[in-house]
Amino acid sequence: MEVVTGALPSLIPKLADLLAGEYNLHKGVKGEIMFLQAELEAMKTALEKLSSDRIDDKQDMMWARDVRELSYDIEDSIDTFMIRGDGRSDPHGFKKFIDRSLGLLTRARIRHRIGTDIRDIKSRVIEVHERRERYKISSVAAHPVKLTSDPRLFSQYTKETELVGIEETRDEIIKILMGRNDNKMVSIVGFGGLGKTTLAKAVYEKLRAQFDCSAFVSVSQNPHEDKLFQDMFYQLAKKNNARINVIDEIKEFLQSKRCIIVLDDIWDISVWNLMTHALPDKNDGYRIITTTRNFNVAQQLGGAYYKLKPLCLQDSKILLHRRIFGNEDTDKCPDQTAEVSDKILKKCAGVPLAIVTIASLLANKEGNIIEWYKVYKSMGTGLENDTAVSNMRKILSLSYYDMPSHLRICLLYLSVFPEDYMINKVRLINMWIAEGFIQYGKHGQSLFDVGESYFNDLLNRSMIQPVHDWYSGIIEECRVHDMVLDLIRSLSNEDNFVAVLNDTGTTSPPNAIRRLSLQNAKEDHSMTWIAKRLQQVRSVLLFASAVPLMLALENFRVTRVLDLHGCNLSRCHNDLKHLGKLYHLRYLGLRGTSIAQLPREIGNLSFIQTLDITRNKITSLPPTVVHLRNLMFLYTDWSTRLPSGIGNMTCLEYLLLRIDNSTMDAIEEMGQLLELRVLRIVFNKWHNNLVEYLRKLQKIKHLYIEVIDGRRSIGGLDAWVAPQHLCRLNTVRSCWFSTLPSWMNRSVLPNLSFLWIAVKELQVKDLEILGRLPALHSLELEVDHVSLGIHGRFVVGAGLFPCLVHCKFWGFIEPVVFQQGAMPRLRELYIDLLFMWEARETTNGDGSLDMGIRNLPLLQDVFIEFRSEVASTEEVERVKATLRRAAEIHPNHPRLTIL
């Protein structure tokens, strides 16, 4: 059993607030609250000690469950009192005087009620305590682990760690697919965690440049077939398709094209039967790779199959040592841990997931041989026969129980999501905050910053898998490996943490439902029994395929998280009219729900922290939304107009503003939002006072400014100085910097990863300054050298832009030249240039010009917009031919587009 601390982490600070707040509590009630505070602190400490390992003693389980459930009930009572008994009100106006006078009577009754509730709660606490004293809870050693955040683990995730030992296997599969034996398809077979997806991805990345189009789609156990083929068409054709007959569209599109397609994680033959109808009849230019856990499925698919074997001992050692020590030299392993590491690897049985998981655990032990042997002795038997899944769960649970309690509860929460679901990082962190899993950090860290550190900790411990956005260099999403999901689902079921209704059935907890995840609607799914257990539900997530199961909102009176992401509420018989009665709500996710407006009663949700109404038909928010003074994250579309008074929402950290002539006051109000971290603004015309208000926002990390009408400002941001923690800056469509700002360098902006700017006059040395930014992943740089007549040779030297993967230069007269060692990770290059006769002096020795793209080793796509005013047609064509030749001889054979 997993022992979670319930609401204790968030409840205990609330009791302190209740004592310190202006609630006019009776002296006796204050004394009882102080007693509760001390008692719950002791219980929390005991639970944390108890939860350092899996607990199987039933008496311990019962006590832990009683404390957890009690903490939820106490928090509900305290929150209800804070909502209804807050003595603060607006003192102005005769009507408000009458309302306030009547309110005094109401609040007096509420204060009396809270006194009664506190005494009842105290009795329950004493009862739980006395029950515990009737037996002795065995002492469980709890040694806090120092978390070592190892950036090597992340950077090696795909290039080294996961690919270790598979080069030979990858080449074997390529030989099967591309040889002369006419094999168009190969299935990779093996059980979960063995590395099938990683191997398929390695083959795919190696071959895709040789084909006209490609797609890598995840099938999963319960695939949404329409979405799967829509995704496939988008990857192949680079455009969306809204038609019903998407399979026919794929077939037509592939008629004259060579393609490679990966179908990852096939569980039965049904998807493949549909896929056969999408393949062209008379085109032999396609290649298919599938992965499956089931050998029988592989046989039914036809074609060749490849049984994936566990890693050999040597490759297992390399993988383990890379994860722990940052090198693959097995001789570098400390002598004192060499023997025990071999024993650990033997028990891991060559399963990459097991090795990576254990390595993450051992990385925190700092080579302590005693700690390593503790891990070894806890691992149980090796992975073999039919016990593979249960033993993998045991291995995964070692890292699970090694995590601090705050990480464990955050990971458990991921069990609310379906299998293979791409979980948005921001959405997840907002939910953690709403549930009270995250408390304010040290040194002024915001709740979101703390939550992001939790997310990164889970990544470093290999408990979740990152979904990379190589374009921006930011991890926007994650997924949970099937085996980790299996582990946390089993723990969640034991602990009544989440009730899940999906295709495989329903986890039916014996007690009240605290969290509900509705993932699929079957005809035999009756919500009657669920509705009776929702009086205390804290989180409700409804997924698109379960919309018919949507319950009336009045069922969710103490709910903190309500997420209806992607659910078409126009098809649902329940509307949002009771939304304003969900007073405990902290998170409201209405993204993509096809709603056109919010009720005015939204202003009653005084606790709400996150409101997401993006991808809807909402053109304006009700004026009452400005009463949401605890709102931190307001996600809206550009077409949504905000009401006057946003300056009252002083907790806001994320804001999107559309400014026109009728909303100019919003700029001034924006200057009052000192907690803003992410600000996105669109103007009709440039606002000259913008810098005055931007200077007040010293916590900004992401800033986007766009002007959609009129000319861009020249020098409009010259007087602004960016905060040191700025990560993303995009002003290219709003204004020109006159010159490169002096603060735009690595000492001031060490975390800047995304930079899209326009600079009127760029000096040669400025490009080197930008190239020294250590975290820069995406750069779009526009200059105005054509109108200024600036002729200068810009060279990107060796060692510059070490992390850049996306680059766009435009407005240069002469082409930018890349030397060997520059931009070692660049994948995508856009260049817009004016080629003039004078540019001939930048050509290489034989009179041709290739800009040095041969020196960019990972280049995949090159787009060049070529304009000439002086050069002859022959000169231009010669340069184009040289560029084509450079792309052809490049080892990666990048796609070259010349406009």
From TrEMBL:
Residues 8-96 form the Disease resistance N-terminal domain. It comes from the Eukaryota. Residues 536-896 form the Disease resistance R13L4/SHOC-2-like LRR domain. One of its GO terms (molecular function) is nucleotide binding. Residues 416-488 form the Disease resistance protein winged helix domain. Pfam families: LRR_14, NB-ARC, Rx_N, WHD_DRP. Keywords: Coiled coil, Leucine-rich repeat, Nucleotide-binding, Plant defense, Repeat. One of its GO terms (biological process) is plant-type hypersensitive response. The keyword tRNA-binding does not apply. Residues 167-316 form the NB-ARC domain. Belongs to the disease resistance NB-LRR family. This is AAA+ ATPase domain-containing protein. It comes from Urochloa decumbens. The lineage of its organism: Eukaryota, Viridiplantae, Streptophyta, Embryophyta, Tracheophyta.
